[in-house]
Amino acid sequence: MSFASKIESKGMFASSIFYAIVGVVLLAFLPLNDYAPHLGLLGLFSLGAAYGLFRKRLWSLWFVIVLFFSGTAFASFMIYSILAKDLLLSTVMIVYLILTWIFTAYVAAKREVLKG
Does some domain include residue 18? Predict the structure, then answer.
């Protein structure tokens, strides 16, 4: 029996992978940006959400909601401030913003899968 067949909800697994990758990337860029506290907080919340979604915990929904609002504000500000200067970073921020919205909508729609 393969690992993929053991996963009950592939969407929740994809959501947890997305938040785990975002958390690791944000924490990896922390020293490159003079230890900006917002990157650290977003990274820690993303890793917490990834863990909660992977373990199917109900409290992870609150982490995802907090990340939706804070991630949207962070990405929108970054897009606004660097749109004409750095096209690659702007594109990455747009993709991050869209994926954040998609995974938040998915987790909110499938919240009955999460256990209390």
Answer: yes
Separation of alpha carbons 45 and 66, rounded Å: 8
- Would you say the pTM of this structure is higher than 0.90? no
47 neighbors 19 (Cβ within 8 angstroms): yes
How many angstroms separate the CA atoms of 8 and 14, rounded?
A: 12
For the four alpha carbons of 37, 96, 21 and 45, in that order, the dihedral sign comes to: positive
In total, how many domains does the chain have? 1
Residue 41 within any structural domain of the chain: yes
> Tens of pLDDT along 32-51?
877 788 888 999 999 999 99
Residue 19, in any domain of the structure = yes
